[in-house]
């Protein structure tokens, strides 16, 4: 019977709720060495993700991401940072799960314009490896990913998306400059009340799996 449903052509096709995708973009660090986001410090990053769509309004996503973050005092106009003259470069790896809320009804439409903006938030774990590492400290942290995006079904089963997400961390050592002061040299101290964070801006492509449903 299933074979008859498949070949008659009269059976409705419903969207499978599973997507697999990949993204490429850039990471940008924010912390003691770069208190604000600066374009010159964007470095490459990429991700792979699995998305489950239980409804038109809600999507659940699991993602792994890796990339680089960097910053340098020499590009600051602050005299203190110029005198400190510190810099760092770190590899970052992250695993996260987030929920996406779609503002429009994002569903399979063969012959209609299909897109939606969305917001997302969730939790994850990140691992980093700063260079240089001049002290012994924990190189992992919980992260809270959140942000905004837009996705568009180009042509079934392909989708593209653009997303900007921030990562709140619970570490002050991404830049190798954190924690409580260990000496009286102000040039070797950061602000212990300011935890480091980073952004991930990416363009993604995903593939939606479809199935034939017999009534």
Automatic annotation (TrEMBL):
Xref: SUPFAM superfamilies: OMPA-like
Pfam family, one: DUF6089
Origin: domain of life: Bacteria
Domain DUF6089 residue range list: 6-214
InterPro entries per UniProt: DUF6089, OMP/PagP_B-barrel
Protein name: Outer membrane beta-barrel protein
Species of the source: Dyadobacter sandarakinus
